[in-house]
């Protein structure tokens, strides 16, 4: 079985898949893995070509937009080790079956890709409702998060259309990556590139009032901790204003 290697980047992965689909008549019999740069590593290294990667994804969106979105969500999940051969085989099947590929869950590659993509999609949907923006001293707003998946880009695009008039930041504490929306421009970078001032006095007062309101409306006899944790997992509570006072 032939073994191919790529550099570990998203562009590198898509470049390698594109090359293999063009050069290999039976891609399902090929192994694709991230290069580890060890002395005795076996395999043919495929160079990264950003234009080739972009061209492949454009073809995927045109051929099967729903499946292309599945691939996008899967890659946000950062599932190292699964993204190589599983994704290669999934893309190969996509060009044969189009958007119907997601229905072939008996195929191991399809099952792996769809399962991981759905988990990332559920977290993205959940974070749209769980993010808490805090007003800073300079009038901007900041929302912190530590998601399992690298979803800052689709989240930022979501809030770009809903908070167009505000100046805001999203900060992924886990990956130390930030998104900033200001004057109609969305930027991404490391948090060190942006200056984050302290909370405004008004924000501190609002948070205190919200925590008091949250406690006041609670009915002790109807408290259902299991249901609450199911709808709002505890791993997200760290940045919820209403939970910080508990």
Any overview of this molecule?
This protein has eight helices and eight strands, in the order βαββααααββαβββαα. The protein folds into three domains: 3-124, no CATH class; 130-193, no CATH class; 201-243, no CATH class. Helix 1 crosses helix 2, helix 3 crosses helix 5 (108-130) and helix 4 (85-97) packs across helix 5. The chain is of the alpha/beta class and 246 residues long. A hairpin with a 4-residue loop joins strand 6 (168-172) and strand 7. The protein has a five-stranded mixed beta sheet with strand order 4-5-6-7-8, covered by helices on one side. A three-stranded parallel beta sheet has the order 2-1-3, with helices on one face. The mean pLDDT is 85. It is elongated, with a radius of gyration of 22 Å.
Give the helices and strands as they follow along the chain.
EHEEHHHHEEHEEEHH
Estimate the global geometry from the Cα principal axes: elongated
Biggest pleated-sheet summary: 5 strands, mixed
- Portion of residues within helices: 40-55%
Overall pLDDT level: 85
Residue windows where pLDDT falls under 50 for at least 5 positions: none
Whole-angstrom Rg: 22 Å
Termini separation: 56 Å
Oligomer: single chain
Q: Which strand-content bin applies to the residues?
A: 5-15%
Class of secondary structure makeup: alpha/beta
Number of strands: 8
Give the spatial strand order of the biggest sheet.
4-5-6-7-8
How many domains is the backbone divided into?
A: 3
Helical segment tally? 8
């Amino acid at each position: 079985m032939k073994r191919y290697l790529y550099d570990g980047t998203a562009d590198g992965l898509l470049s390698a898949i594109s090359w293999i689909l063009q050069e290999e008549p039976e891609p399902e019999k090929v192994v694709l893995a991230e290069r580890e740069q060890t002395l005795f590593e076996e395999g043919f290294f495929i160079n990264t070509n950003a234009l080739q990667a972009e061209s492949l994804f454009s073809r995927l969106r045109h051929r099967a937009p729903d499946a292309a979105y599945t691939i996008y969500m899967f890659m946000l999940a950062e599932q190292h080790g699964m993204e190589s051969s599983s994704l290669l085989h999934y893309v190969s099947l996509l060009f044969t079956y189009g958007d119907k590929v997601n229905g072939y869950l008996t195929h191991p590659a399809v099952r792996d890709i769809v399962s991981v993509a759905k988990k990332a999609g559920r977290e993205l949907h959940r974070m749209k409702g769980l993010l808490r923006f805090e007003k800073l001293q300079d009038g901007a707003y900041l929302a912190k998060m530590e998601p399992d998946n690298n979803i800052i880009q689709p989240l930022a695009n979501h809030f770009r259309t809903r908070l167009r008039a505000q100046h805001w930041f999203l900060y992924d504490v886990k990956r130390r990556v930030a998104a900033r929306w200001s004057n109609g421009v969305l930027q991404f970078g490391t948090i060190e590139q942006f200056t984050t001032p302290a909370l405004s006095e008004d924000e501190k007062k609002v948070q205190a009032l919200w925590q008091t309101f949250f406690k006041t409306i609670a009915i002790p006899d109807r408290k259902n901790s299991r249901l609450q944790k199911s709808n709002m997992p505890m791993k997200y509570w760290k940045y919820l204003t209403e939970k910080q006072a508990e």
